[in-house]
Amino acid sequence: MRQCPPATRFPSPVPLSASPSAHRDPFPSLQVLAQLAQAPPPAAAAAAAPARTYSAAAKEITVREALNTALDEEMSADPSVFLMGEEVGEYQGAYKISKGLLDKYGPDRVLDTPITEAGFTGIGVGAAYHGLRPIVEFMTFNFSMQAIDHIINSAAKSNYMSAGQISVPIVFRGPNGAAAGVGAQHSQCYAAWYAHVPGLKVLAPYSAEDARGLLKAAIRDPDPVVFLENELLYGESFPVSAEVLDSSFCLPIGKAKIERQGKDVTITAFSKMVGYALQAADILAKEGISAEVINLLSIRPLDRAAINASVRKTNRLVTVEEGFPQHGIGAEICMSVVEDSFEYLDAPVERIAGADVPMPYAANLERMAVPQVDDIVRAAKRACYRAAVPMAATA
Amino acid sequence: MAAASFTAAKFLAPVAARSGGERAPPLPAGASSSSFARTLRRGGAHHPRLRTAFAVSSDLLAGNKAAQAAATHPAVTREEALELYEDMVLGRVFEDMCAQMYYRGKMFGFVHLYNGQEAVSTGFIKLLNQADCVVSTYRDHVHALSKGVPARSVMAELFGKATGCCRGQGGSMHMFSAPHNLLGGFAFIGEGIPVATGAAFAAKYRHEVLKESSPDGLDVTMAFFGDGTCNNGQFFECLNMAQLWKLPIVFVVENNLWAIGMSHLRATSDPEIWKKGPSFGMPGVHVDGMDVLKVREVAKEAIERARRGEGPTLVECETYRFRGHSLADPDELRKPDEKTHYAARDPITALKKYIIEQNLATESELKSIEKKIDDVVEEAVEFADASPHPPRSQLLENVFADPKGFGIGPDGTYRCEDPKFTQGTAQV
């Protein structure tokens, strides 16, 4: 087994804001969050930020803020990290994720690219070959298909093809999956596509804590990481603890999180579907079914140990994903459980996925094409043999 | 003499002076005896030549009076000439040995040989430093050798042995060598161009943002690719971005007129590839790729431009591959008279003739270089033969740089190194 290369030691985090109150404020990063929560202009508006009382209650931040602060802190800590993509600079990010970064780091480190996914993704990979740490933003992952040759052939396979000489510390990030009413070419989920490839790490955060922790881990990672965000989650707020807001916080890759403990049925989900699964678990609890919800966090490497341990406890499994069903994440999870925990299964594995059609535009059809909370509830009941009607193909 | 008739200053003509009024000097008939080049020029004669782009001809091979008169001052010193000769002979002998080994079953898969194109590899790469990068295509054995990868590493890699430069995991089409800054070996045409542009971007970033400067100037990246690639979208995307951001890169087109069996003229609306440079605002140069000294002159200027931070250059080298596209290619579509025509312009024979005529070395010295190279290549084959196959455990290694895939922890070390990191899952 080859030796780990000397691990990169990161310098201690630089305080983010030079505002005069920074040294008094015990959480300088929250100062930035306060400013971000305000409308622009920033800079000397430190005095204008409302005084917040930091009681024992957790602070809430949106996923957007979580991603922005993660990018900010990592760019500040390591000067070889840079961001490139369409509209990331002057437009402040197509979804405002990179707001304020151009002003702070300048056009050398926050690059607005022309509309050339294949070209600029390849440029990012080449820069990563040669010692920098690029973050390539795709406006949505649908556009990554124009660059998929570079993600897979130049980035994922290089460490293997060069026998460890060329590692590619690059992050490909952007919104993935369905938004609202954006049609077939803007709504596909790419988790299964990228998770299929050895050499890539594929992460899918749900909450703000996940987003911060996983993005920081991805940027520090020496391997290519596909970071699948979700546009509809950007504006959602989640409570975060002080530890999460610390600039050295990061989550491990390859580890799932048990969002909710249960004993009757395991529900696995990732990204937006975790929220739906938690809502379904609430509904099921009222009917006496205790569901365990696993937030996968890391699609590749998949935390098979966690999934199997949970299934061995509950004996029933429902996999939930937003993407197309055939050859999807649920299929892989089901096979993993069949391989490792077959005797523990008391019911067939239920798979909830998007409809096997390109995403329609009409709002009612779109609702049918994406899993809803009811679908998850029904599937869980079927797995518990509580449904009156046997399984029919969900929409 | 080539050096006298070529002035590098023409490279630097401002882009703005694009009136099209002044046409570049026409190629002397003697040098461009290729009927194909004449076809190209006839086709291109309608287009006014832009001031920044011009065609450089080779006077070296023509026996014309001008060349002989100017041949009093050799373009290279004796040491340089011998270095060029040795490198080209190494490329040729190595590739011939590859063919032999392939037909004996020691090499397998796709093997693309570089015979005939050695002047381009030697002419460009021998001017580079160790810190400069080379990105190539599947026809990359000779680029690797010119950049300094030992012949035995390349041969062992081709045999699929554990002592190869990529431990047998890359193969003929994927030569990587981090110490020599050889960033691949790509099978998809056009794939290497953005990667090379990215390496050039990294060089510029290091200089401007990280403030790590070298006394020579920016590190230069060289992207080698063929005529077929010049119709690919990624090529144009990178010409645009390289010029936009003034990256230190030289785009070298090895125009050998054929993309497998597709003639360049059948595939391309405007076959003069050098003209695509000025469309993006960078100089486009056409050079005779069978003449290593000519290539070297052009390369010198292009590399120096890049080092000074003036941005990219597009160089089209008219060259020819003596063998088929790969060892599996029956090569039936190319006409025999075309092949004999270019065989007569063999770059190695031409350089040998030049060296002897200029009294830079004697015939016996050149013969001893050839003998030395034969020995090097024979030894490389023996080394590769004797090397072990990769061990079974190597199959699953190096998928990630991160040994167990759990990422880097808050303290900056790999999480799997932390003894407290258990197999349990993270709880809410």
UniProtKB/TrEMBL annotation, chain A:
Its cofactor is thiamine diphosphate. Its EC number is 1.2.4.1. Keywords: Metal-binding, Mitochondrion, Oxidoreductase, Potassium, Pyruvate, Thiamine pyrophosphate, Transit peptide. Residues 1-23 are annotated as: Disordered. GO terms for cellular component: mitochondrial matrix. GO terms for molecular function: metal ion binding; pyruvate dehydrogenase (acetyl-transferring) activity. The keyword Phosphoprotein does not apply. It catalyses: N(6)-[(R)-lipoyl]-L-lysyl-[protein] + pyruvate + H(+) = N(6)-[(R)-S(8)-acetyldihydrolipoyl]-L-lysyl-[protein] + CO2. It is found in: Mitochondrion matrix. Residues 61-236 form the Transketolase-like pyrimidine-binding domain. GO terms for biological process: pyruvate decarboxylation to acetyl-CoA. The keyword ATP-binding does not apply. Its main location: mitochondrion. Pfam families: Transket_pyr (PF02779), Transketolase_C (PF02780). NCBIfam families: PRK09212.1 (NF006667), PRK11892.1 (NF008854). Tetramer of 2 alpha and 2 beta subunits. The pyruvate dehydrogenase complex catalyzes the overall conversion of pyruvate to acetyl-CoA and CO(2). It contains multiple copies of three enzymatic components: pyruvate dehydrogenase (E1), dihydrolipoamide acetyltransferase (E2) and lipoamide dehydrogenase (E3). This is Pyruvate dehydrogenase E1 component subunit beta.
From TrEMBL, chain B:
The keyword Nucleotide-binding does not apply. InterPro entries: DH_E1 (IPR001017), PDH_E1_Alpha_Subunit (IPR050642), Pyrv_DH_E1_asu_subgrp-y (IPR017597), THDP-binding (IPR029061). GO terms for biological process: pyruvate decarboxylation to acetyl-CoA. GO terms for molecular function: pyruvate dehydrogenase (acetyl-transferring) activity. Keywords: Oxidoreductase, Pyruvate, Thiamine pyrophosphate. Its cofactor is thiamine diphosphate. It is an enzyme of class 1 (oxidoreductase). The keyword Kinase does not apply. Its EC number is 1.2.4.1. It comes from the Eukaryota. Residues 87-390 form the Dehydrogenase E1 component domain. It catalyses: N(6)-[(R)-lipoyl]-L-lysyl-[protein] + pyruvate + H(+) = N(6)-[(R)-S(8)-acetyldihydrolipoyl]-L-lysyl-[protein] + CO2. The pyruvate dehydrogenase complex catalyzes the overall conversion of pyruvate to acetyl-CoA and CO(2). It contains multiple copies of three enzymatic components: pyruvate dehydrogenase (E1), dihydrolipoamide acetyltransferase (E2) and lipoamide dehydrogenase (E3). NCBIfam families: PDH_E1_alph_y. Tetramer of 2 alpha and 2 beta subunits. This is Pyruvate dehydrogenase E1 component subunit alpha. It comes from Miscanthus lutarioriparius.
